[in-house]
Amino acid sequence: MSLQLKSLVRKELRARLRAMDTATRAAESKRIVTQVLTQCERYKQAKHVAMFLSMPSEVDTAELLADSLKAGKTVYVPRYEADTMDFLRVYSLRDIATLPRNEMNIAQPEYHVSQSVLTPEATEVEMASPAEAAGGASVTTTSETTAPTTAPTTATTAHSNTTTTNTTPSIKESAETVARENPLDNGKLDLILVPGLGFTAAGDRIGRGKGYYDKYLTRIFTTFAANGWTAPATIALTFPCQIMDSIPTDATDVRIGHVLF
């Protein structure tokens, strides 16, 4: 019954999103992002932030990406691998703008990054505009700037008297590439900005059916608790039309701490 109800709810929410015109979506995105930038203390105080690279039907995160990088925050964005999602660090707007796209046409980082991206010149946020970063302009990449796609392996790594699961693939680093930082390995994550198809004001969430965020949030909370690390806060960014009085949930659904709409 829950699956049938979720299917009906998703159908309703997709219809609501389709009914939004481009101008309304842009204005609502600007209003919501301005709230984050000017009123959200959790965002202002966070030093390490994970956020989604927005699709056209979502709140536009381009300005948040630019602001976070300019402020010197550590920024992580999603990478999808089969039925698993990880967040990996990005270093500049140019880094984001040149990310390869997966089969769903979503820009995502490789597990390793060129050393050239880490140079002071390459990390200047002025090197790419927010629109380029979010829009993911088509860029031809080479083996010099991207690492091969490899599924994660599990290895135990010591970090300051704690033991964590290393989720970075075991590709040998070279003078040209280094592994992108992963908060599951180092415990450095203060805030996760979460997308979704719909929410309740209390934080119940329904996604698009793949379970990426529910599984990731469960994994991050479990890993952080096991190592005595402070769990990150979670904030959903969503349009008012995506707010519902109730959403069918089950044991695998993770409630979001705060919903901003």
From TrEMBL:
Biased composition annotated in UniProt, kind: Low complexity: 131-168
Any Gene Ontology biological process: tetrahydrofolate interconversion
Cellular-component GO terms for this entry: mitochondrion
Protein's name according to its UniProt entry: 5-formyltetrahydrofolate cyclo-ligase
EC number in record: 6.3.3.2
UniProt keyword terms in alphabetical order: ATP-binding, Nucleotide-binding
Catalytic activity: (6S)-5-formyl-5,6,7,8-tetrahydrofolate + ATP = (6R)-5,10-methenyltetrahydrofolate + ADP + phosphate
